[in-house]
Design goal:
Elements: E1 8-15, H1 21-30, H2 32-36, E2 41-50, E3 60-71, H3 74-80, H4 84-92, E4 95-108, E5 128-136, H5 141-156, E6 161-168, E7 174-181, H6 184-193, H7 195-207, E8 210-227, E9 230-235
Antiparallel strand pairs: 1-3, 1-4, 2-3, 2-6, 4-8, 5-7, 5-8, 6-7, 8-9
Length: 236
């Protein structure tokens, strides 16, 4: 049986200056227990980030750190914004992005769970976000890494793309992507119109790169803040 569909999904990404990198790295371990104790929280992952161009350790970005969370209700997500966890991250950061979303589709598992449930299909063509996450099989790593760069290049040149970054629970092997798009149509055009992307999808089934994988698509409720040169101010 699928897990319940969360009322809201949030992704925070904080950018920290060089002097705060050691504290941010330590916080990835120290904040796990306080995050798990948050009222209304259903699922959470503290994440490193990268540019997602090769999915190797070369992509790692020590200046940006993330927190993905799912919530039983929107009030719990709002209350979390005043929590000690968020205050500590805000204090060490010089930039911040928060994306709030509701699930549209989700297939696969993350650490054995279905954190976004099994959403009922519905028509939606406003701003959307896409999340992929996979546990890479070690014996397929080299072949996978060779296949990624062409797709990454096409992704970043795609019309309608507002944000793209790599996310991961480890520098290698437990990685994924997160992207925000102007519309569901723009995301579909990339997913189905790019020969490079279609080729990788086909190879995923043929080669069996992943021991576990998940793909989810979300309606963006809001996306507010900045990461580097990217600034988002979207409200449903």
């Amino acid at each position: 049986m699928a897990d319940p569909v969360p009322a809201l999904v949030t992704l925070h990404v904080w950018g920290v200056p060089r002097r705060a990198v050691p504290a941010a790295a330590l916080a990835m371990g120290r904040e796990r227990r306080p995050v798990r104790r948050t009222p209304g929280l259903r699922f959470a992952k503290l994440l490193g980030t990268g540019d997602g161009r090769t999915f190797t350790v070369r992509d790692a970005d020590p200046y940006h750190w993330g927190l993905l969370a799912t919530w039983g209700d929107a009030d719990a997500a709002a209350a979390f914004e005043a929590s000690a966890v968020v205050r500590r991250w805000d204090a060490r950061a010089h930039e911040r992005l928060r994306v709030a979303m509701t699930p549209l589709t989700s297939t696969g598992r993350w650490a054995g769970q279905q954190p976004f449930g099994d959403p009922v299909p519905r028509r939606y063509d406003g701003p959307v976000a896409a999340l992929t996450r996979a546990r890479l099989r070690a014996r397929q790593a080299r072949r996978f890494w060779r296949a990624v760069p062409p797709v990454s290049s096409v992704l970043r040149a795609s019309p309608g793309l507002l944000l793209a970054l790599g996310i991961g629970e480890a520098p290698v092997g437990l990685q994924g992507t997160f992207s925000v798009w102007e519309s569901a149509g723009a995301l579909r055009d990339f997913a189905h119109g790019s020969p490079e992307h279609r080729r990788v999808i086909a190879q995923t089934h043929e080669v069996g790169w992943y021991a576990e994988e998940l793909f989810a698509r979300f309606a963006v409720v809001s996306a507010v803040g900045s990461l580097g040169v990217t600034h988002l101010d979207l409200e449903a």
